Amino acid sequence: MEACRNAAAHRSTWTVDVRRANHSAFNGYRRTSSPYSQVRCHICGAVWRTKAAYVDTLPDSPPRPACQACTRAAGTACRICHQAYCASCLTDHHHEGYGAPATG
Ligand SMILES: [Zn+2]
Ligand SMILES: [Zn+2]
Ligand SMILES: [Zn+2]
Q1: pLDDT of residue 9
Q2: First-to-last C-alpha distance (Å) of the chain
Q3: For residue 93, is pLDDT > 80?
Q4: How would residue 92 be classed by pLDDT, with cut points 50, 70 and 90?
Q5: Which residues are within 8 A (CB) of 66 and not within 5 positions of it... i.e. 6 or more apart?
Q6: C-alpha 63 to ligand 3 mean position (Å)
Q7: Ligand in closest contact with the CA of 3
Q8: What ligand has the least distance to the C-alpha of 68?
Q9: Could you list which residues have their CB under 5 Å from ion ligand 2?
Q10: What digits encode the pLDDT tens for the residues 5-54?
Q11: For range 89-103, the mean pLDDT
């Protein structure tokens, strides 16, 4: 997790994923108090944790869609039906007649 290296140009796109807490899809969305917030740069894609005061001046990140299959945070979407899926569920998600054939 490295901070954005071009704060002067990118800072206007920074948003806060998690304010002063540990909170992620990987711990089941349990929220524990922490002095650190998770900040995201929407230009270079950097994600980092900081307890700097500038966090208070940044807007919250928009909520990310949940996977249609397992409800974890979706990182991608089906290019055919445009539903949100996480990477592992998208691997198993196919539409007959579109490229990858349905198996089983
Ligand atoms: Zn950046
Ligand atoms: Zn999933
Ligand atoms: Zn689909």
Answers
A1: 97
A2: 40
A3: yes
A4: very high
A5: 72, 73, 74, 84
A6: 21
A7: 1
A8: 2
A9: 67, 69-70, 86, 89
A10: 999 999 999 999 889 887 655 556 566 778 899 999 989 999 999 999 99
A11: 78
Identity of the residue numbered 55: V
Report how far ligand 2's centroid is from the alpha carbon of 44 (Å): 25
75 CA → ligand 2 middle, Å:
9
Q: Give how far the C-alpha of residue 24 lies from the chain's centroid of Cα atoms, to the nearest Å.
A: 9
- Identify which ligand lies nearest to the alpha carbon of 78: 3
Coil, strand or helix at 10: helix
> Ligand 1 centroid vs 81 CA: distance in angstroms?
31
Report the separation in Å between the CA atom of 28 and the middle of ligand 3, taken as the mean of its atom positions.
Answer: 25
Task: For the beta carbon of residue 64, count every other beta carbon within 10 angstroms.
Answer: 11
Q: Which residue has the tokens 């539903």?
A: 83
What is the 8-class DSSP label of residue 95? Answer: -
Q: What is the pTM of this model?
A: 0.57
Q: Which pLDDT value is given to residue 20? A: 86
